Records
---
Amino acid sequence: MLGIVGLLFCLVPLTGFIGFICGVIALIFGIAGISRVRKNKATNKKTSIAGTILGALAIAGGIWGMVIVFTAVDQLGTDLNNIGDDFENYSNCIENADTPEEISACD
């Protein structure tokens, strides 16, 4: 169940970290379930395998979502720095311009 929930959270990149956490827990429980089946303490082999696979997929999806978010935030920071630099250059050009032609050249 946690693997399915994790995959659903991975569909939205902003919640990828939640999907990652759910995937890790699902993977741990799935591996524990497989271990219990091997020791003949449980009979839910198919469910344990499904939980392990879905948990691994949720981990991969969570990492993918976090990469998208961190890349977007980094790009936003770069774009904001460029806007600030462009504005500073434009301001300096306007301050140093004396004629209307020089002012129009600042665009």
---
Amino acid sequence: MAVDLGRYGIWQLAGMLTPGLATEIERLGYGTIWIGGSPPADLALAESLLDATEHVVVATGIVNMWQAAAKETAESYHRIVARHPGRFLLGVGIGHPEGQKEYRSPFDTIQTYLDDLDAAGVPVEDRALAALGPKVMRVAGERTAGAAPYLTVPEHAREAREILGTGPLLAPEHKVVVSTDAAHARELGRSRVRRPYLELVNYRRNLLRTGFTETDIDTESDQLIDALVLHGDADTVAAGLDAHLAAGADHVCAQVFTAPGAPDEEYRAALRALAGGLGLG
């Protein structure tokens, strides 16, 4: 692929990302900033983060195909890479049926959207596809640089690599709480995955494929929460992220949680601690 993501990145909702935070993430040694929360087709936030930094990559995680027209998205892509070549990865995905009033065939919609990006000159190597199940995972490997799965565990990375084969990108997201207080971490983790994720059919289906049970999902079992939201000291969390790499991922992006209403400095301190555990900087 044309864009070098590095081994580790930070995933954060678009509304929480600022140029100042981007510069700190870059300074700490993370390779990529992932913009979450379905950023709009104008990609203005991505451009502002790239303008504020020098070398960190910015990726969308993900542009929602139902909400962002391919033509406008492609125009924004070309504007950005003209200013920041080699530093932007366009992550796209289909979203979820629960979030759309008109939800046509997701597979056909993905293919059509990628056709439109082809026609608009967005290179295969500069785009990635959100993929969970085998069918879409194969499309990610065939028609984009690779897959950017969300809410997964290392066992999924192992299965995804078998489907993708060698070469295509595999860049999963994983949620983390840098805290040795297991009860606090589980409480925080449950509050962040319960809604909407455990209520969405695509994620439920994938968790069942991975080996969790309906009971795990419905009761938000400790086993499930501990798998989906890593916790412990920075070294323990880093080892959990590295398990994705050992299972076949090329890059893993951490979504770092702190308590609701916690000061910004607490979040930044968690980023610094995790960077130390990962050996960055």
---
Amino acid sequence: MADIIHRHHVVQRGQGRRPMVFSHGFGCDQQMWRFVAPAFEADHRVIVFDHIGCGRADITAYDEVRHARIEGYAQDVNALLDSLDLHDVVFVGHSVSAMIGVLAAIAKPERFAQLVLICPSPRYLDDPPGYAGGFSRADIDGLFDLMESSPQGWASFLAPAVMGAESPADLTDELRASFCASDPYITRRFAQAVFLADHRHVLPQCTVPSLILQAGTDAIAPPAVGQFMHAHLPHSTLVVTDTVGHCPHLTDPALTIETLRRHLGG
């Protein structure tokens, strides 16, 4: 257990018994949950952690093969749950961590009670004519090229798009700084794993009940993507909030907490 806690900089708080695990998105770390996670500490065992290559996770645990695909991060999640011997887990995943949670739940459904998927996407690339993921291949290739040529420039380009036009400047600056703080090589490979993945085909395999929390305006995972998730993910509930941007847990934490509480019955 000590190895897992060190590897992922695991932090546990709360007075409840039921575990609630918060998993951050691309280029972020567990601090992105600071406005939401504490609200559940009175009645849950709240667990936050950093993915390998992010935040204060042990960078030496990065594996070129394992972490070249999102499935590798899902394996990390299940290793964490196994090590802490967690059952009846409420897993809250933002952005790419939503699909990481889906993949982890497909592999070990017995560990999970519920999934909360905040602004999820099974595929970020458009697949015309039937699927609009939000990005063309030229968009993604341009982002990869910018990550190669300008470690600061890509963060300045992507952070405002992620946070949304109405986001406070300090939150956009925080996200930009978070992008820049990660190891450039690992971040670039993580971006490739995220933006080139296609997990649409696995959605019907997930048997764990899930809440899809979709922002009303989101340039990264448009509302049509949330509707696609809901249509193909069994036992799912779709809630579209009147929020702008890809990070409602940062820009509107009160609404996020209220929605989660209503869904969880707490």
---
Amino acid sequence: MDTTRILFLCTGNSCRSQMAEGWARHILPSDYETFSAGIEAHGLNPSAVKVMQEAGIDISRQQSQTLNDLDQKQFDFIITVCDHAHKTCPTPEQGQIILKRFDDPPRLAESVKTEEESLAIYRRVRDEIRVWVNQLPSQIQQMSN
């Protein structure tokens, strides 16, 4: 059985790509190996960690990293979770690139007044990522045929 290696790529590797990696490790079968990285490493976003813990997924031990931290790993699929990463990340030469946009919770949360309103944004994006990751194996299978 071959392993499918997936990289979730975003700008700071602090929120969306981290949540996607967490969901993928939890949901996808063992023949998938998942990673996340960014243009820069901004550190794990505490609100992302919190809302993932609410869903039973612990991403607190994941590391915020850049492509350079991945030791030239080869990927079958590189999934960019934002336009900025899709346009500006120096992506590895191998692998099919998939753009899947998700709203940026930290940016959206800047305009709200309470922590609960902020967390509601993170929860919505968390759940959107979960739904999409659930569908990922069938999408990959279609792309591979």
